[in-house]
Design goal:
Number of strands of chain A: 21
Largest interface: A-B, 19 and 19 residues
Distance between the termini of chain A: 40 Å
Helix content of chain A: 40-55%
Oligomer: homodimer
Largest sheet of chain A: 8 strands, antiparallel
Shape of chain A: globular
Low-confidence stretches of chain A: 6-21
Mean pLDDT of chain A: 92
Structural class of chain A: alpha+beta
Number of helices of chain A: 26
Strand content of chain A: 5-15%
């Protein structure tokens, strides 16, 4: 999986604990504590400055929602990954000029292309510790559900208060499952424009085949620019808007890095689960991961069959197929990772030792053991629902029409509640985005494929142990005398797949929605009790976690000792490491860096290895030794392309700036290696690697492949 | 492809020329000439002895027909690959004791298992140059067909005279397409017994997935013993037979080899085509190889579909599927190899330079250019038949019943001729083996699969350019109104798929066979003119080659200069090289050696990575540092398993002994790497590698995994 964050559907808990490894995803306020280690490794700037949003490079690191980016000029020029910009590029493509295929460089600012109404840049402005307020709210509560509600209420109130300033978006980030709470205030820039994208054949060179793989040769970059109103404040898109002047932007270095060099990655990693209990980890590794592997194998087979039906179906289902194929590869790597790393056995052993040590200390035992037992009990209570929840989650995600119906119905039910009590993602502030997402979904709607997916999940439900089956689905199949018959009936007379009636239903109240004759709306209504029970279980679990997991984590921490970092939670983090290759298996060694020689070596002329002629010719000029002003970007008479580091990253880090020992931009994080797929559960320093594009490849390309010299100048690179 | 020789179906010529590379497949009489190079590289025995069948290790190197082997004890103990012994192992398996799965060690000589009536060991006894006799026969002939017939007649007469001694099998080997002829006399040992085979999970560890791949961890060995009558002469199998006493056997070394060491491979490489003309190479690379890739892709799809029909079909078609999958992988590698190596462009350039230099020298031009032009013309005449010939070849090979019918009919036609005029492989001396092979074929007969294959080839024929189509097939399809209808009609009322009638037809004369109502026999009869024309074209081409290719090769040689080796032709050769890893692609380095650590690393418990528990426990004892008498076989506290070398090998070399600088046995050649699939056309020293099993893995296994200490003793290894 490229390092984009799509939410961790495998994590049963929303936020988890702390870890002990030397590597880690450090919060800005921890940098002081790790300063001695950084100095030892050769940091050449002050660690204090590195941490300071107002003084150091971290102030230039911004969130795109799912991806990270950074400012690289005083005029709001932003660099991120190509795969984080695909939506904006597609949006501006026309049948005559497919920008995805051809790439794009805005010759002047006037040529910069609006990324659309959904595009956002969030600039972290302030992080305020609100732990006291949050924990005070639950201090005396003795029920899990009440605890969840109390936390939820305080959190929503804090957010509402913070968002009085209409230019910011706020959220309460949870660390260590409730050990710490931080209110983030992020400036929300709403006019984002595309400045440069490489052709897909550079930006996604290697495609799905190379995805997650090393050696890699991908030019995974894009440039945006942040625009604001003439008053300097965020504003909706307007031709009168002007470039945003960031308080911090990164210095771009053309000196590069080499094997063994210290590097940093600063960004917004989405979620990790490095401190699950042994029972939770066992469920993930031995139940969820294998089940999801089988499910993805089946779903990939289904989508392939459906694509054969017609050229139209083939096109419409391509994104679904790519997503499923990507998921399958991830699941294979994840299962491989769990199997090879032995982390489950290790965690069991470590937890047993931890509990034994705890129980041996009577004072400690009395103080923390009850909370730990309560956490274990809550986890155990939830475990039997895992199979059911996976089926329900994917059944309500893959078939487009059913997903639409279920979303409309859930929203209608939520609208009955006061806004502050509505679920996260279903509040008034979310409705616009929710509708936009539903409409986008319809592009991939193929009724026959919908039906095939739904049939699959109905059958999968029947195969669960009787006690775990979703009763309304069992009844549905029985009523129609078979899964196929049920599915056929459900897809007759739909309203949710008609633009007009869908729009009406989306805006309607619960009564109107539930009165609809649409069979999928009726199915959604029928499934509501199951989803509601699941939702309540989730809230109860979240409440139990807030009450007990911090106690567990604190005790676990005390037992392990050392400096620890909290699990990723989409807040700003910094990780450090070395440029370093690895050995994936006996007798194979991977070097840490790749070059343009490898691009030519992989080139076949067939996607995804179809390097553009302009690129190939430019590389050949270099290899023939022709001199140019861009020679400063070369290494060993060729163009550096990608490199590996031991930095600890995950989904959400895509586009993160890679910094050198002086805090200068030397690369962009864009992927993790195949061996790191289990790293969300445990980091393995021997074989987990982050994959970066060398910024010199971008700089050289701007000078030699596309007409981007003015952008080099803007980044402070003078080729003369 | 493991290094077994199944005949080079891609080579359009029967024997080809010489090459210029430093590496090569040298004939024993060339070793004197390369002695200085060998001395430089550290040879520690006399090069003259190395070459001498009576004095050096070459005398111990024997031919199994498709594989190579060597004597390793004074009592006729033979070591070769596991994959060369599969037939013998299967033959001795029972439902109660599956030797393929369980492996086997004969505790005493009485327990050794007969490998069956088809098993042979050929010991090269004498090589006599008969070039003068052969070339005298064609000296004054001015027609290609007459040249072929003259050569064929002299060759058959020499063989018949040589085989007056009933203990030997003789053949006239062709070097450089007729530049040199050698009469080989090989002692034919007819009682061969299985002494030891590892379990399939060791001998084929990694299976199809690892086939051709590196890093490798395969224990690809087996032990046989040669038996003769009490008079010491070859005899049919009898309990009274005694072990054969070879004049030479190899010294087995437990000292091993390490990265950079000089090694030799001695064996019987089947066929290479390193000196095709530019036109021939272009046809191979740009027509035949891509066409065969597509064909194999289609055939693999077909056999997969057919296997789904029933469990019975799945089992029967497994060898066919494995063969096709293997072929497909080979074709992919071959096409990759042609594409990446650029050998076609190189050959074109080299040939143009050669011809230009030749034409510039008027004397030379006058002397050799007419012969070269004649060769080029003959090649051009044959080129249009390539597509048709591939279809006919595979159509008459894959569908079992059609292959049976076509073989029976061809034999019946050949029987009309005097024996010495019958085609090679269809003479009296071949009939017994021909029948045995037909009978074995029937085990894989699945009528529906036969029909699917035949339908495919009928359709493929229709897609050829009209002028290249096989007319009787076009007519057949027209008569029945479609390919499916034609196939259905052809598979009704068969006699060739009934044991009794098949036997009768096999022994019948032409008239009786052609009177049969069997529709496939009738198809064979109908195809006879096409096959006959093809056969005649082949003979004409062979005659043209005998007349002109030696002239071309000699001129080519003169142009290139240096010492050259003839293309492989299933005669005894020796190749030398270094133990050496390689880089398959940028940023990847392969080490030259693997160990038991990699076996455990690959172990999943699922075939083909299901290492037996006895093996894993023995390895774990080693890794835990337990001392034993077998520690002499270890390196770095683990068991050496496989290694790579730069030796130049091909199909037929499977089982070849790998010798160290002192001529001692240190390994067994068993495969080439993926990058070497185009090596039959051009050897690439940078990326072509041979793959060997380290003999210490066998020795250690005999001591620690199976009860084979007595065999170690027999090989002169004393563990005390």
């Amino acid at each position: 999986m490229r390092r984009i964050w799509i939410g961790s559907f495998l994590a049963t808990i929303l936020a988890a604990g702390a870890a002990v490894a030397e590597e880690g995803m450090w919060t800005p306020d921890q940098i002081g504590a790790i300063a001695p280690r950084l100095a030892e490794k050769g940091l050449q700037i002050s660690a204090a400055n590195l941490a300071d949003l107002d003084k150091g490079p971290l102030g230039a690191v911004i969130f795109l929602g799912g991806c990270t980016a950074s400012f690289v000029s005083p005029d709001g020029l932003v660099v991120t990954n190509h795969h984080c910009a695909v939506g904006a590029i597609q949006r501006n493509s026309t049948p005559e000029n497919n920008l995805l295929k051809n790439g794009f460089v805005a010759a002047t600012r006037k040529d910069e292309l609006w990324a659309g109404p959904a595009a956002r840049i969030w600039v972290t402005r302030k992080e305020t510790d609100v732990t006291d307020k949050m924990t005070a709210a639950v201090a005396k509560i003795r029920s899990d559900v009440a605890a969840f509600e109390a936390i939820d209420a305080v959190s929503k109130a804090l957010v509402a208060e913070c968002e009085q300033d209409k230019t910011v978006r706020c959220e309460v980030a949870v660390y260590d499952a409730g050990g710490r709470y931080v209110l983030n205030e992020r400036l929300e820039i709403r006019d984002v424009r595309l400045v440069h994208a490489p052709p897909d054949a550079i930006g996604s060179y290697g495609g799905d085949i190379d995805n997650w793989m090393w050696p890699r040769h991908t030019g995974d970059w894009s440039l945006f620019r942040a625009y604001v109103g003439q008053d300097g404040k965020p504003a909706e898109y307007s031709e009168q808007n002007v470039p945003f002047k960031p308080s911090r932007y990164l210095e771009v270095s053309s000196e590069g890095v080499a094997d063994g060099d210290l590097v940093f990655v600063a960004g917004y990693p989405g979620s990790t689960s490095r401190n699950l209990t042994a029972a939770e980890l066992t469920t993930q590794a031995e139940v969820v991961a294998p089940q999801m592997l089988r499910t993805f194998q089946d779903l990939v087979d289904i989508v392939h069959e459906e694509q054969k039906r017609s050229p139209e179906a083939a096109v419409k289902l391509t994104p679904t197929r790519d997503g499923l194929a990507n998921g399958l590869k991830y699941m294979q790597g994840l299962n491989d990772g769990f199997a090879k790393s032995g982390i489950v056995a290790e965690r069991k052993k470590a937890e047993a030792a931890f509990l034994a040590a705890l129980d041996a200390d009577k004072v400690k035992k009395k103080k923390v053991r009850p909370a730990i037992d309560a956490l274990f009990a809550a986890i155990e209570t939830n475990a039997p629902y895992v199979g059911q929840e996976q089926i329900l989650r994917w059944m309500l995600r893959l078939p487009v029409a059913l997903r639409t119906a279920a979303t409309i119905h859930w929203l209608a039910v939520q609208r009955e509640l006061p806004d502050e009590q509505r679920d996260e993602g279903f509040q008034k502030r979310d409705e616009e985005q929710l509708w936009a997402r539903l409409e986008q979904l319809q592009q991939g709607y193929v009724p026959e494929a919908d039906k095939a997916f739904l049939r699959y999940f109905l059958a999968a439900n029947q195969k669960l142990p009787a006690a775990s089956q979703i009763t309304p689905l069992v009844e549905l199949v029985k009523e129609h005398g078979g899964e196929q018959q049920a599915v056929d009936a459900l897809y007759k007379g739909l309203e949710v797949d008609q633009a007009d009636s869908r729009k009406k239903l989306f805006s309607a109240d619960k009564k109107t929605v539930e009165a609809s004759a649409d069979p999928l709306i009726q199915l959604a209504k029928r499934l509501y009790p199951v989803r509601d029970a699941q939702n309540k279980r989730g809230k109860k679990m979240a409440g139990a976690e807030a009450r007990f997991r911090p106690v567990y984590l604190q005790a676990w921490r005390d037992h392990l000792g050392g400096l620890l970092y909290p699990d990723a939670n989409a807040t700003l983090r910094i990780t450090y490491g070395d440029v370093q290759g690895y050995s994936p298996r006996e007798a194979i060694t991977y070097a840490a860096t790749t070059t343009a020689r490898g691009i030519l070596e992989k080139h076949t002329g067939v996607e995804p290895f179809d390097a553009p002629e302009t690129l190939r010719k430019a590389i050949e000029r270099v290899h023939q030794g022709q001199k140019s002003n861009s020679d400063r970007f070369l290494v060993d008479n060729t163009v550096p392309v990608n490199f590996l580091s031991t930095c600890d990253t995950t989904g959400g880090n895509s586009g993160s700036p890679t910094l050198d020992a002086r805090g200068r931009l030397v690369g962009l994080l864009f992927d993790g290696n195949y061996e790191s797929m289990a790293s969300d559960w445990a980091f393995d320093t021997v074989r987990n690697r982050s994959i970066h594009v060398d910024i010199r490849y971008l700089l050289w390309s701007l000078a030699e492949v596309v007409q981007g010299q003015h952008l080099l100048s803007e980044m402070g690179i003078d080729l003369k």
